[in-house]
Amino acid sequence: xxxxxxxxxPYRYVVPLAMVVGLLVSxxxxxxxxxxxxxxxxxxxxxxxxxxxxxxxxxxxxxxVLLAITVIRFRDKPGNKAPYWPNWHGNKKLEIIWWIIxxxxxxxxxxxxxxxxxxxxxxxxxxxxxxxxxxxxxxxWLFQYPGQHVATVNYxxxxxxxxxxxxxxxxxxxxxxxxxxxxxxxxxxxxxVLPLWLEAYKPGVYWGHSGNFSGEGFEKMFFNVKSVTPExxxxxxxxxxxxxxPMTMTNYHNLLAFNTVGVQTYSNYPSDTFPAEANGxxxxxxxxxxxxxxxHGITYMPMSDMSNH
Amino acid sequence: xxxxxxYLIRTLFPHDVLRPTELGxxxxxxxxxxxxxxxxxKQKKWLYLWNEWLxxxxxxxxxVMYLIAAVAMLFRGGVxxxxxRTNLAxxxxxxxxxxxxxxxxxxxxxxxxxxxxxxxxxxLFNAVVPLMIGARDVAFPxxxxxxxxLFAFGALLLNISFVIGGSPDAGWTAYPPYTGLLFNPGPxxxxxxxxxxxxxxxxxxxxxxxxxxxxxxxxxxxxxxKMPMFIWATMATSALILFxxxxxxxxxxxxxxxxxxxxxxxxxxxxxxPMMYVNLFWLFGHPxxxxxxxxxxxxxxxxxxxFSRKALFGYSVMVVSIISIMFLAYGTWVHHFFTMGxxxxxxxxxxxxxxxxxxxxxVKIFNWIFTMWGGRIRLTTAxxxxxxxxxxxxxxxxxxxxxATVPADYQLHNTYxxxxxxxxxxxxxxxxxxxxxxxxxxxxxxxxxxxxRQGQWAFWLYFxxxxxxxxxxxxxxxxxxxxRIYTYPLGFGWHELNVISTVGAFIMGAGFVVMVYNVVWxxxxxxxxxTGDPWDGxxxxxxxxxxxxxxxxxxxxxxxxxxxxxxxKQKGQTLANSLRPEDMRTIELPKNTPVPFLLGLxxxxxxxxxxxxxxxxxxxxxxxxxxxxxxxxxxxxxxxxVGAEVIRRTEAALGRLQG
Lengths: 309, 659
Prior knowledge:
The structure holds two protein chains of two kinds. Chain A is an alpha+beta fold. Chain A is built from six helices and 13 strands. Chain A folds into two domains: about 35-70 and about 90-120, no CATH class; about 125-305, Cupredoxins -  blue copper proteins (Immunoglobulin-like, Sandwich). Chain A has a six-stranded mixed β-sheet. Chain A has a five-stranded mixed β-sheet with strand order 4-10-9-6-7. The termini of chain A are far apart. Chain B has one domain: Cytochrome C Oxidase, Chain A. Chain B has 20 helices and two strands. Chain B has helices at about 5-10, 20-40, 45-55, 60-90, 100-130, 140-160, 190-215, 230-260, 275-310, 315-330, 345-370, 380-405, 405-410, 415-445, 450-480, 495-525, 565-570, 595-610, 615-635, 645-655; strands spanning about 585-590, 640. The model of chain B is unreliable at about 15-20 (pLDDT under 50). Chains A and B meet through helix 3, helix 4, strand 7 and strand 9 of A and helix 5, helix 9, helix 10, helix 11 and helix 12 of B.
């Protein structure tokens, strides 16, 4: 029996190894939405996450190894031959080294972080991008398309392959608007309008959810974003105008009730259901658009033109 | 319950609907209360309780009371956690409803931060700081007792919310406008704001007290650069408290005004700006993170040196890093809400400032490891927590850097990745540190050791349970699971990981049970500490007998080196062998006073009355507050004297006197 068991030893590592590999493989499973970006925003966010993780591994692994060696080598047991220096209380060279290590690693992370933070805050140059005004309500999502004059509840349709500007506000407690596969979240807050741009590479359905607790029905604030080809998007708008009814003020007040509802579609909506003026201080950066409401209706004006207005 | 009682309760407590679970809790609390009263009466312990504990101003006894409260709150917060985890393991058949879940995650966070971590830290401050610096007590002993009773009654106010009127349910961060009357009409949020306001006064006073104590009360010869690292941590923590709690107080008071007096600072209507609250809250909240982690850093610096039998590596660098963490802590608060659209410049600034904090923290990690290098490491329970802390905290810090990477944070914010990260630093850093300190200083506080074998069992259960709980939560974050949901649809692949996480939580729960058993067993059978120096310690508290006499030092020691006690031992001196009977002098000590207890009680009455807006009761309570303070101001009889003869006898009985 004994020799057999001995020979069996190496295989003992197979099970834990298989578990680790399995975990890593399942890490590439489709359900890890953060690891499967479907748009440029999510893609660059994932890229940064990976860069930062690798930089962190550079410090984690040596620290773990060093700690293990230290504890094994310097354990207080009789006959330990390791040196004992009770009064060794500092070493300038060593200490300078580990001030430098984190500085270098953090620089590696910091430089792309700053770059991407600025890059992602700018809407890429696009011809007449689709704008969607998002309002979080207790506990539902209202999407209004000021350019297309349609409104939806608990689902949104966007054209694939071009940036879409979401303008976020709340007529409810704060929520966050989040479609993991398209990109990171942004808060929806009452009395403020925040911009967030997302883009889907390809047509598809991507789920979204609120990330900030807002009460009893909060966990039901899931919604789908359907990405379709630009032509299909135009057809969808046309179809909505033909088939759906416009939203009335009564409809809107019904949406304000504290409940959850299914999906809804409207062919128009009352203009004063979304804040008239966007809060300008977050819309900084070239290529961002300021929304102007005036007698001509809604116009989109690049920030760079603001001074001439 | 008879219907007329329910009628009575509903009339007395508007907005409230009693639920069966609450009734069960009501009955249990009532029964426990009856048992305690019965026990105290039967044992004739009322007077003992009043004289020895409720009116005491002795820092060592206040430490014990803080510790009992902290462990009780750890139990309460832990039970909350198990309820949350049980629900998340059973998404199709939730055990508790969404309403209860929302209350439980709120009290879990609030209690663990404000009523577990904070008092645990203050327990160790009180137990150790005066002894370590060679002082008779803290700078303001009466204020110290007031701090404790304000904390205790604040904690009581929050805890009774569960049985009278319903607990707060807006999360421990209490973001408006959800906390406004429109969305949250019950008394729960009033409980939250008032209990934190009351406890916050106590905490601020503790900050003042220990800042003055560490700066002004040190023994002769103990210059700043000869202070033990735990004292540096105490000083930095106190300074943080002093400037971090005012913004919290303001935020809480403004929210309370919105609820009680119809103002609109943060409301949905009338153009309130909830983001202002979020700024104020985290202006406190981020320094708070360092308030609860710097003391553990100090504890670990003492523990690692003692159990490696070696001087702390890079002392002056450790001081520099603690002080720089203290300052940087004020400059990072926006990283809690990168996703609130403050713009790329602001976000980039706060992302970088957050990363900066990792530098001094990383340096500390290396210094702890090199303290062990060339030492002789004893694997006691206290040291095991230290060894578990380093890898756990390194991972927690690394995931913190991932969260500080602004664009990545847009994806990770408010997901379970975030939950895993902050439990990683709060359990791996704060809780492990505090437990390490508890096992380390227990002999000094109580005169006996905690059983090592049981302690190590508890340690392994905590450590393994921790990783089984929070490892899967990182993956859940990558799967897009957001926080504070009481159930979830099955299609996202969240279920299996949640089950694993729940198993881990119960392993940690088992760790707590073993720890309590350890404490109770050791009270009776624990190895007595007759030397006063069971670990071969390095700092002054180990020069004293365990438990420490009321007056601490028969003669205040003169400090000549950094690890003062270690240095004395190397030179063959002890406090005892230089102590001659004729050197004994009468010692002045602070005298017991009922004022702190009564002040806390009066504040409790104010808080309770305000919660239900019973202004007559509020007036009574306020009168009590004023009366306590006025009485205290004119109470000049605040000292008592321990005669030289008494000290001579005590020290002789301890065998610490020459001749």
